Amino acid sequence: MVVHGNFWVVVLLIIGVVAAYNLYNVECLPIPHRILLDTDVDTDDFLALLYLLKQNRSEFKVEAVTISANSWSDAGHAVNHIYDIPYMMDRDDVAVGVGGDGGILEDGTILPNVGGYLPIIEQGNTTAGYCRYRQAIPPGRGGGRLDIDVNFGIQRAFLPQGIRKYTPLQQPTSQQVMIDKISWGPITVIITGSHTNLAIFLMKNPHLKRNIKHIYIMGGSVGSKNGDPGNLFSDSTSNPYAEFNIFADPFASYQVFHSGIPITLIPLDATNTIPVSKNFFDTFEKSQNAYEAQYCFQSLKTDRYTTLGHLFYTNFYMWDAFAAGVAISIMHKSNNTNGENEFAEMEYMNITAVTSNKPYGVHDGSNPFFDGRDVPRFNLTKGGVHSGHVQTGLRDPFCIVKNGTGKCQDGYTAEVTGPEAVHVLVATEAKPNQNNDSTLDKQFYISFLDTLNRPPDTGRFNFTTQFPYYKEVLYKPDFGSKKLGKTVVFDMDMSAGDFLALVYLLKVPVEVINLKAIIVSPTGWANAATIDIIYDLLHMMGCDDIPVGLGDIFAMNQSDSILSSVGDCKYIKAIPRGSGGLIDSDTLYSLARDLPRSPRRYLKLCSFKKYT
Ligand SMILES: *[C@@H]1O[C@H](CO)[C@@H](O)[C@H](O)[C@H]1NC(C)=O
Ligand SMILES: *[C@@H]1O[C@H](CO)[C@@H](O)[C@H](O)[C@H]1NC(C)=O
Ligand SMILES: *[C@@H]1O[C@H](CO)[C@@H](O)[C@H](O)[C@H]1NC(C)=O
Ligand SMILES: *[C@@H]1O[C@H](CO)[C@@H](O)[C@H](O)[C@H]1NC(C)=O
Ligand SMILES: *[C@@H]1O[C@H](CO)[C@@H](O)[C@H](O)[C@H]1NC(C)=O
Ligand SMILES: *[C@@H]1O[C@H](CO)[C@@H](O)[C@H](O)[C@H]1NC(C)=O
Ligand SMILES: *[C@@H]1O[C@H](CO)[C@@H](O)[C@H](O)[C@H]1NC(C)=O
Ligand SMILES: *[C@@H]1O[C@H](CO)[C@@H](O)[C@H](O)[C@H]1NC(C)=O
Ligand SMILES: *[C@@H]1O[C@H](CO)[C@@H](O)[C@H](O)[C@H]1NC(C)=O
């Protein structure tokens, strides 16, 4: 017994030593920078995500991606796109958050899990609401939401299919993911979409603010060396000041800027100096040694073919990828208060995010925070900066100036003095390449290509390596000598009920009904990109011969008279974006991912207008 006792003492001592050593070691090992990316999953956004995921993981660890659901993509499509990217890289540990059905009550109480489908000013107690700012984003082709939702058809052609997918009632919400990851410990947040998710988080959980070490933002436009500061190409008649990410929810951006958390802004002023130039594009083409690089290049290439052609090289910028690069480079150096980094010149400026237009305190019916309320929403100050005219939509008459550019500044990251000024580190331009032997003229181009092609942690899968036996076969039914029944054309939107009806029509004996064509209207319960589910369903049923036509992207009289690719949402604003609404239809309640993949899909079918 005595011997035994001593033995245990020795063992415990050894365990003690090991434990102490481990503790010591944990303290000494550099802990990786934990990163949360909030993104609207546009092309430059996933370039940024891949650039971040390819960093040395013992230095920079992407822990979560949350989806900004009121901007350039639609939640159901965006979240499945995001699930496949970490899967390609064997990183299913990255948490992914989207949506949520919470609302904001009349008295300003923020319920849990607000989905961020709407800008805060339009957020009521459901997920349905008006597209006050989002109507500046084209919902259809030509680089609009339809193209972004399917990533120009490249997502289905290239990316492997992840194990994870959007599933109703099981999907972690953006707010849950933010609470989990931010309460765990110090974290850096990078925002490359609208600011709604983070603003809601900060308003609801002010006690967790201290865990956010720094916020890096791609967005805004501070000054302008040449012409208008903003980039609302669809809306400059009313607002030449705003940049899309801030314009998507100016009040949310105000909350983020004024949160007291240190902020670094990478605005258009800086990103405009680093386009996806022809030289960079051609170098990229020759430098695709990893799946990540291949995916980014193929996406850029298709984007170029389908949207801008030659203009691409001067109108498409590195935007979010550049912002991610600046963030990483600043974080590399500890105690880096002046934002020293390899890629951008930095300057401190005093700025704010404009949420309403002067004169303040005028009740003209444009501002639901104040109009018709004794106590302004969220207790905002009467006559304060939020109390002026708020842009009501495209071509808001208040904003239009005869024979001039518009005067509305909603979403402008303006330089100001006084109590509204926030001291922010701002990138002003991209730094030149230090290596004179390279033909690429900006330092970040080199880092981007090197990082995406870096061998460690390189992708396991692309679609062909994941499914080596997949063949693009079109199935056509053989009706032999059957007497065909009534010819039918089916006009559907893409809610679950419509899919049931479609299956029914296809199962009715062909002697009774001969389904000849399908016409899809994207103005109802699903977004246009959901058309790919119809192709897959027809493929499953062996009817790849049935043509599918996509109808007008806007309801009657909703498209804009100046630029027909944008327009109003007078009717579809009634359809919820969250559970039971668009996010569920766009994924067919998660079932869409289990359908066999048709060789037919949106964009593959369009003949691209090639500019060379
Ligand atoms: C990643 O970073 C760690 C810590 O700084 C370093 O020890 C390691 O060599 C790096 N790995 C690579 C592949 O660069
Ligand atoms: C939701 O808000 C509307 C007004 O916007 C109100 O009529 C309705 O009672 C509210 N519903 C709930 C459950 O709070
Ligand atoms: C997948 O990667 C392989 C090997 O790099 C390549 O041959 C193939 O074209 C890629 N698949 C797609 C769909 O690009
Ligand atoms: C960073 O700054 C803090 C406080 O100013 C200081 O204690 C710490 O030693 C600095 N760290 C480095 C690596 O310079
Ligand atoms: C910004 O404001 C601070 C005071 O908050 C002031 O000291 C500084 O000079 C201002 N900087 C600029 C660039 O205006
Ligand atoms: C709004 O302000 C009033 C008076 O300052 C205060 O009593 C009330 O609690 C505030 N409400 C909220 C929701 O902050
Ligand atoms: C505005 O433009 C129109 C035609 O371009 C011109 O006839 C008119 O005089 C201009 N008005 C002003 C105030 O400049
Ligand atoms: C690149 O060229 C500039 C002048 O053109 C020179 O000052 C610099 O030292 C050169 N850098 C390298 C790395 O050769
Ligand atoms: C469309 O708008 C025009 C002009 O605003 C109007 O005359 C017409 O009646 C509208 N058509 C429909 C179907 O609402």
Q: What would you note in describing this structure?
A:
The structure is a single chain. With 612 residues, this protein is α/β, with parallel strands linked by helices. Helices cover 30% and strands 12% of the residues. It contains 19 helices and 12 strands. It has helices spanning 2-28, 43-53, 75-88, 145-149, 154-158, 174-184, 196-204, 244-247, 250-257, 268-271, 278-285, 291-308, 312-315, 319-332, 443-452, 463-466, 496-507, 531-540, 582-586, and strands at 33-39, 60-67, 95-97, 187-191, 212-218, 263-266, 344-353, 413-415, 422-430, 486-492, 513-520, 548-550. The strands form 2 sheets. The chain has a 9-stranded mixed sheet, sandwiched between helices. It has a 3-stranded parallel sheet with strand order 10-11-12, with helices on one face. Helix 2 (43-53) runs parallel beside helix 14. The structure holds 2-acetamido-2-deoxy-beta-D-glucopyranose (9 copies). Residues 348-350, 421, 423 line the site of one 2-acetamido-2-deoxy-beta-D-glucopyranose (NAG).
> What integer value in Å does the Rg equal?
26 Å
Q: What is the number of beta strands?
A: 12
Report mean pLDDT, rounded to a whole number.
Answer: 93
Shape, per Cα inertia axes: globular
Helices and strands: which structural class? alpha/beta
Largest sheet: 9 strands, mixed
In helices, the fraction of residues equals 25-40%
Give unreliable regions as ranges: 5-26
- Trace the largest sheet across and list its strands: 3-2-1-4-5-6-9-7-8
Strand coverage percent: 5-15%
Terminal-residue CA separation:
88 Å
Unique bound compounds: 2-acetamido-2-deoxy-beta-D-glucopyranose
Instruction: Please give the count of helices.
Output: 19
Pfam family, one: IU_nuc_hydro
Family: Belongs to the IUNH family.
GO molecular function: hydrolase activity, hydrolyzing N-glycosyl compounds
Protein name: Pyrimidine-specific ribonucleoside hydrolase riha
